[in-house]
Structures are given as C-alpha cells and as structure tokens.
Amino acid sequence: MLKQLLLSGLIVTSLQVSFAQEIIPFKEKIEEVKVDPFTGNIIVKTKEGISSFNPVTKKSDWSIATAAVNNANTLLSLSKGYDALGNNDFMKAFSSNAQIDLIANSPFAQVKFDTNSVIINTTNGHVVYNAAELGYVTLTVTYIPENKQLLILGEKDKNIEFVNIDLLSGKVNWISKVGDTESISKAFGKAFKRILSGDGTAVENKLLVSQGNIFASLKGLLFNLDGATGKVKWKTDYTINNFYISGHGDKVVTVMSTGGLFSVKQNLNILNVEDGSKLWKDDMSTKFISYLEDQGNKLLVAHHSGFNFYDYKTGQKVWKKDAKGDQIKEVIPVDRDYLYIADNEMNLVDQDGKSKWKKFVEIAEESEDQVYYLGAVSNNRVFYLTDTYGNMVDYTTGKKIWKKNAEFDKKRPLVFTADGDKFLVYNNKRLYKFDALSTDNPKPKGKIEVENDKTIESIEAFDWGVCIVGQNDVIGQDDEGNTIYQKTYKEPGEVGRRLLKTGVIIGSSFLQTRSSFRKGVADLQMTYRDDAGNMLSTKLLTAESSNKLNRMAANDDQLVDIIDKNLLSKVQTRFNGLKQNSDYAFILAKGNAATELVKVRKKDGKEVAKVQLNNNKPIYEIDPIDGSLYYVEDATLKIYRDL
After folding, report:
1. What's the whole-model pTM score?
2. Residue 252 and residue 271: Cα distance in Å, rounded?
3. What stretch of H or E contains 132?
4. Residue 540 pLDDT > 90, yes or no?
5. 109, 120 contact by CB (below 8 A)
6. Distance between CA atoms of 373 and 387, rounded to whole angstroms?
C-alpha cells in the first residue's frame, strides 16, 4: 500500500478582504501547485510527495509519498541514464523546469520525483507509469484518447525508445527503438540548437492517429509508427513545425519554418504516408501560410504571395492563375466560396478562383494593419475589424453595409468581444457596439476616462453592461455608457514589471482576449471538404479537442478505468464552464508595503481579495471556472474565494 501523505491541518480564518479563507499548512516547502481541470482540485507538490486537495470537502482526495515511487536502486538506475545522455543539446531540448505537467486533453499529469518521472491519474491518484520501474529517463509523454494509451519517448541503456502503455490494463503494449543517443543527437543537432535558441515558431508536441498509424511530432521530429507493433515506418531527417493528415489518410501535409529566430519564411510539402517520401520535388517556399484546405485530390494553399489549389500528386497549380492579390493574410470559407484578405483589401472568389465581386473592398489603411476579426454573420454579411476600420459587407454583392467605416486609432489598443452577431469594441477610450442585423452606422458612446489607455487588454459583455480590463484598470459600464464603477491601480515597481514580462500574471490570457491574426505557423489549422464539397469538422480528424475525451467517454463502459463515473458530470460541467470564465479580473498593483495581486469581481467592482507577493517568483494558480486563487508561501497554501 502506498504511504499516504497527509495534510498537517486546516485553519479557517475570518472572511475579510486581504485574508485567505483557508490556510493549509504542509510539512515541507511547497514546490508547485496546479489546478486540475477535470476535478477542480488543487494538486500540491512538495519534496515529500504529492496530494490532491479537494476545496469542497477541505480534505485530500488522494496522496502519494515520494518514498512510495522512489528508492535508492531506481534513482541509481536513472542517474546512469542521465549520465548517458550527458549535457548535450538532445537532453536540453526535452528538459522542463515544471514539477507537475498536466498532459493535454487528459486526466493525467506527469510529476517529477527527484529525477524520476511518474504519470498519475489525477482523478483517483493511481500511478499508471513509473519511469524508474521500467528504467527510462522520460523525455516526452503524449496521450492517445482514441486508443486509451500513453505514448512515451524515453532513454534506456543509451537507446531512445517509444513505450506504448495501455491505460485500461496498465501493461506495456510495445517498445520501439528509434535510435541511440549519439545518432539521434547528431541527426537532429541543428533542430535542437534552434529550439534552444528560443525560436518561437517551433511547435509543441503533436500526435494524430489515422488508419492504424500513429504520427508523432516531438520537438519538430516527425515519426510514423505502426499503432499495433510500434515499428517506426519512417522518420523525417529534417524538422517540421506542423503537420496534417489528408482526409483520405494517404498523405501528410508538412509545414516547416526555414528562417532564423526573426524569420517567418515557411516551406510546405506533401509526404507519402507509407514511406515518408516527398511527393513534390521542390518545397513550396513563402513568407507565411494563412490557410490550408484538403479536398481529397487537391490542396488549397493561401500564402503570402499566392492563393491556389495544388494537385496532391504533382504539386501543379489547378487554377490557371492565382486569385488576385498580394500578402494574403487570411482566408475563410463562405459556403462554397472563399473570402480572403490581400494587402489591405478583401475579395470573394468561387471554387474556380474567379472573383465574385466587381472590385476589392478596402478594409484597412495599410497592408501592415492587423486584422482582428473576419467572419460571416447573419443576413449574408461579413463583419471585419482591423487596426483602422470596422464594417460589414454584403457578400452576395460586395457592397459595404455602412457607407462610412467605423474608424479606429491604431496607435491605441483595440479589444473586442462577440456574442453571436453582436460585437463590442473598445478603442481610444471609446466603446462601439456593432449589430449584424442593423443598417445604422454605429457611433461610439461617450468617452471612458482611462489613465493608462495603452494597457487595456479585454472587454466582456454582461446582462448588466460591459466590463473593460487593463493592467491598471477595471471599469464597469451600463448599456447606456454610464460608469458603474472604476478601479484604477498604480503600476508596481521593477519587481512587478518583471512579473508581467514573464507572463506570470493572468492578464489577457485568463480573460481570453481574441485576435484572428495568424502570427505563427503553430496556429495554422487545415480544414477539410468531402468529395461533394461539404465542410467536415476537423474535430473528427484530430485529437486536439479538449471535449473529445468527454464525448468519447460518455458512451464508454470502461470509463471507470480512466475517469471515475461519479466525476463525469463534474468534468462536463467544468469544461462547459470554461466558456464563461470571466467573473473576475486579477490586477498586479503597487500596495502600501509590497506588490499586491488584487482580485476584482467584475459585476460590481468589489475587491474580493488582496494578496501581498513576497518575492518576484510567486507560486500561485487561479481556477478559471470559479476564480479561486491558490497562493503559496513556503510550506503554506492560502485559498482566496469569492465573498
């Protein structure tokens, strides 16, 4: 039986602003905390072990002691593995400082116990993989929801191997050798050095399952594995940034970034699924790719200097001429047609690349202006937002709905939110409301006095009005433009600025600021059409949707082996709630004695909590569902909730 790691106590204090409602002391210093998105529990890691604290019952649902998964023999075995890898680029490319890594789209977490790596089912605390027991130095872990498996890349006896684990039985399905540490390190030396240089275009790990094959891209290395045996059918001898499987499953579309750290140049090619060979003699080379669409026998590619279909087999263009326009930034399908932005204008073409409008529609002053939104709305209309203009166009005629564009100041931030066909836009201390059903030219309502306008990061609509949030401000307005409340905070000193730069503070990522501008190849997606030209959902073709696990699990009698059935309704509720995680704003502010993290409730501007930060690397987590704040001070976990 695993030795249980128990919480040493629970103290409930008075419910006052600036004071935690629960203070949970641990026996040793807390190394890391994470909110488990499946259960809502807070996972706490100390040197002594790991536990899952339930904020509802105020008890630990499960705990694992370090001594239960580590011993002197296993650590010695792992140390030999690390020595074999040495201090080379290969090991550095896969290294992580995190103690707890939540595995994407799964109820599993990879946890470090000294040099050992353990995979835990966070819903029940079951250990599904202990690297030390198998003798592996773990490099990557990927979840395969279709097969209910884990695919692990690890090092053992100077060999690099894939290990496939069945989560229902807990047994190893197969082990597949990729190569030895020396040959792999040499083969991908340039790729690893590029990753270590901080190249922002390098994508995270990606895995797709198709027709019995497992396609795994790990730090830019692409492998095709036989799903039944683990045999490596082929691997690329060059690095990629993203890949897609064709709708028929017989081809792999690869996208590669070929420039340096500040380059956006990209190459595209098609690989044969069976042997990994390139079908096109030469890569398509361009500054950036903005849209990909698979139509079975041809691929639609929109890129910086062209927009055309390409025959899968030959790489030859299908249309005699590219769709007109340069610097093609974005493309969206509208029924069987394609709406695209070229330079600073917009146009609509049909399946044959022929223009359906008499002329292009200007949507921005300059080609460099950012496109924030482009999308179809009701009444056969398209709505667009750029740095300089906002308007709607009737896509059956190409005519603007409003004779005059709404004009924006591109030197000031523009943030927006959408609710169906209604849009709220904030720019230059003014609020605009756009309605797809209206033909009236929208005019801004009043002026919002904001001390530091350039830090505004989000806007959200509520039944009571609008909330605008920046790094220094939280402002509530009713539907008539009257200010309900306005909270303004002083910017902290150098310590605070360092925190903001490192992205520790929630800011726009928590508030889900939206922008449709494609800045990196990693954000590019590919859409699919069947032979009749109908759009298919990419969720049917990939494993990247966080809800896919829940949809699949709902009809799975063996679900109890992965997620406790009693937790399913809670899991579903939490994932649905992710769409509405906008009840609070978290602001970094200069306090009387120290830098503070202030939790502000949006509906009324009330300061729910103030937390004094005791160093420039605070450890804390925020639950995006209910807004609870978990803050660590040495060996103490403090919990701040709504009052």
Report:
1. 0.78
2. 5
3. helix 131-134
4. no
5. yes
6. 10
